[in-house]
Amino acid sequence: MTYTNFTIETDADGIALVTWDMPAKSMNVFTVEVLDEIDRIIDETVADAAVKGVVFTSGKSSFSGGADLTMIKGMFAMIATEKASDPQNAVQKLFDAAGRMTWLWRKIETNGKPWVSAINGTCMGGAFELSLACHGRVAANAKSVKIALPEVKVGIFPGAGGTQRVPRLANAQDALQMMTTGASLTPARAKAMNLIHQVVEPDQLITAAKQMIKDGLKPVAPWDEKGFKVPGGGIWTPASAQLWPAAPAILRRETAGNYPAALAILKCVYEGLQVPFETGLKIEQRYFTQVLQTTEAFSMIRSLFVSMQELGKGARRPAGQPKTEFTHVGVVGAGFMGASIAYVTAAAGIRVTLIDRDIEAATKGKSHSETLVAGAIGKGRMTREEGEKLMALITPSADYASLSTAGLVIEAVFEDRDVKKAVIEAVEAVLPEGAVFASNTSTLPITGLARNSKRPADFIGVHFFSPVEKMMLTEVILGEETGDRALAVALDFVAAIRKTPIVVNDTRGFFVNRCVFRYIHEAYDMLLEGVPAIMIENAAKMAGMPVGPLSLNDEVAIDLSQKILKASVADLGEASVDPRHLRLINTMVDDLDRRGRKNGKGFYDYPAKPAKKSLWPGLKEMFPQKKADAVDITVIKQRLLVTIALEAARTMEEGIVTDPREADVGSILGFGFAPYTGGTLSYIDGMGLKTFVALCETLAATYGDHFKPTPLLLDMATRGDTFYSRFDPYGAVERAA
Question: 221 with 81, same domain?
Fold first, then answer.
């Protein structure tokens, strides 16, 4: 029998090597066709008396990343279609679809012949759940091998047996930690948790897997053996009496109850360990069906799984432009940002010239990469040879002529128009024809900067976020005259350094900073009203933000806030800023020298380690403090999320952002907007436009006109639109298809 996605080779010992290698795919993923073929492979190997056992592996450098985008999107499309016509039958269909992998993996587990999973690379989600259903598991001892059940990060949970098998192999505490965080495991850690049996050198992987079968591997899972005991003794033990009452409280502390899937994991494990294994699978299937119907699951999967992959693969890349292969990139400005951009460029294997005013400054910039490389080597994430290769790609220089062969030059100098003008002119004097100039400005409009360029069609903004080596988002900003080729080159570069791009049109602050400073300015309003700072910060975290607005302001620097406010006044007039905000920030910076984390004092105090930061007590003296019971924490949470979402809606109305996927992904990756919502626009769509508009009007009546719903929102509420229907990023393509 032949298969599209698999090959089967049976050796003289009767061991069938099943190799998963999907054509025209860089990584194996689960599709309906793949599941059908696995089902047939089980039947074929069971029926063939010559087959004594099966080794299941991948023909690619990775094992599998899990489910395919089209299968996930198809499942949600089915939910929407069926619910509209037959709600009761829709849930049954969803239940059946949710159980497809569950019972297929159970079929592997009970087929009567031993199966061994040979894990040669990244093994995530359903692929690891398949591996857990095999009777033996062997992993290659390589850095490329990462094992995880990361579903909670996209709003669902391991629903193909993961919540039942993991806690029957590892102790319950480790199992819960793994699944509720979605953390990746090294092969060694997975073996220590009893999730895999062996870790071998890569060239011994298949040999070791086959040897397990030759050595008499039983084709029976531990939980199907008579007398099986759960690690640690199960639910009703003294140790469990300490774990289980605390687990929901710890989860609530970490998630504020915002993630239904995380709570469902606890329920699946707790209930599943008290019943026979197959009953536990049914419990998991029911909870999985329930979670799939939540707004959180739909929104998170759409933004953090589907949209993020689509944007990463070039959804906004202009058609007809040849792909750019980068051999030489220039970075001008060897300060913290420029040095970090040089590092990620070299880490992608691209030769980079790092320019500054003199060779000493440029060399100092390169030393930043040396520090990062040393840290990576120390943590085992990079070998010494890899580090040396990376460092060899970075050349410090003070000579602009060294950029004469660069296909892309990124400017990352001080945020001053005159300084940037001088750099643009110096670079363009040596830049080859057709090369692209990109500014890393965080606030200055690209169109204005491009007026200093002799070739504005090749001028674009590429806005990185700090720390560059960790932040996954990059804003690509189009000036009024930026051409398609410059956009294509910028997106190719972002893809080369493995980051996710969003494309925005030109405006002050672009997209991310506009939203960030609305968040921060709302906190200023609250301070002025007398809301205790600790309540502002805690409410933000309860709303799902990773850090409070005051903490975030310290990180980006309070004196930067001052510069931005003053620049707004200079360019747009005094009415463009709240004078109370400017007085507050002037007091913090000019009178008190509290500039944020960078000088050890801002809204927080930053003592020497190991002491932790704490809110500056002086804030209580600056503003009259309300009593805690006079503050409605729910309203504080609403204000913080709504003000950001409103700003995102304004950028859509103004045509700054044109694709709702970019507003959602950009808000989560850029500043951590409550991921459970799916992002700023999904937050609005999720509650419904009418509900959101009514909430805005209520907040505006008490807290100011900046909460008033925009004309676009009012129109959408009247029409019953959502952002994904009004600005459908798929409609034209799908209708054409």
Answer: yes
In 325-375, DSSP assigns E strands to 328-332, 351-355
Check if 225 is active-site. no
Query: Rounded to the nearest 5°, which phi and psi values hold at 109?
Result: -65, -30
Q: What percent of the chain has pLDDT over 90?
A: 85
Please tell me the total count of domains within the chain.
Answer: 2
For residue 360, the enclosing domain spans 328-510
Q: Which of 250, 276, 293 is the last residue of a domain?
A: 293
Contact 147, 81 (CB under 8 A): no
Find the DSSP H helices in 51-185: 69-85, 87-98, 100-109, 126-133, 162-169, 172-181
Query: At residue 555, what are phi and psi to the nearest 5 degrees?
Result: -70, -40
In this structure, is residue 362 part of a structural domain?
Answer: yes
Q: In which order are the strands placed within the sheet that holds 136-140? A: 6-10, 15-20, 53-58, 115-119, 136-140, 198-200
Residue 161 · residue 284 · CB < 8 Å: yes
CA proximity to 354, closest of 393, 390, 397, 392: 397
> Which residue in 135, 197, 328, 463 is the catalytic one?
463
**DSSP of 73-90:** HHHHHHHHHHHHH-HHHH
Instruction: Cis check for the bond before 167: say yes or no (omega within 30 of 0).
Output: no
Mean confidence (pLDDT) of the chain: 94
Greatest CA separation for the chain: 85
Distance CA 52, CA 137 (A): 17
Q: Is 463 among the catalytic positions?
A: yes
Question: Based on the domain organization, do 430 and 372 belong to the same domain?
Answer: yes
DSSP letters of 187-250?
HHHHHHTTS-SEEE-GGGHHHHHHHHHHTT--SS-GGGSTT---GGG-SSSHHHHHHHHHHHHH
Question: Side chain identity at 95, as an amino acid letter?
Answer: F
Q: Which of 442, 551, 561, 568 is catalytic?
A: 442
Q: Which two tokens stand for residue 296?
A: 């959180």
Which DSSP state fits 31?
-
Which residues, other chains included, contact 661 with Cβ-Cβ below 8 Å and sequence gap of 6+? 303, 307, 310, 311, 315, 729
Domain boundary (488, 510, 532) is at 510
| pLDDT tens by residue, 597-634 | 999 999 999 998 888 999 999 999 898 899 999 999 99
Tell me which of 5, 28, 131, 513 is the catalytic residue. Answer: 513
Do residues 284 and 333 both lie within one domain? no
Structure tokens at 497: 């350094």
Supply the pLDDT for residue 488.
97
pLDDT at 610: 87
- H-assigned helices in 677-722: 680-687, 689-703, 711-719
CATH (domain of 273) = 3.90.226.10
CA dist., res. 531 & res. 508, Å (int): 30
Q: Which two tokens stand for residue 700?
A: 């505006």
Indicate whether 333 and 275 sit together in one domain.
no
Q: Domain for residue 231, yes or no? A: yes
Name residues of the chain where pLDDT drops below 70.
69, 732-737
Tokens for 668? 């989560």
Same domain, 288 and 335: no
Give the separation between CA 159 and CA 267, rounded to whole angstroms: 12
Residue 13's region, left for phi above 0, alpha for psi from -120 to 50, else beta, is alpha
Residue 392 within any structural domain of the chain: yes
Question: Residue 189: inside a domain, yes or no?
Answer: yes
Query: How far does the chain reach from its first CA to its final CA, in angstroms?
Result: 33
544 and 514 Cβ atoms separated by less than 8 Å: no
C-alpha 405/C-alpha 558 separation (Å) is: 39
Catalytic residue among 475, 522, 647, 662: 475
Tokens of 233: 């003794």
| 607 within 8 A of 616, measured Cβ to Cβ | no
Q: d(Cα 131, Cα 683) in Å, to the nearest integer?
A: 36
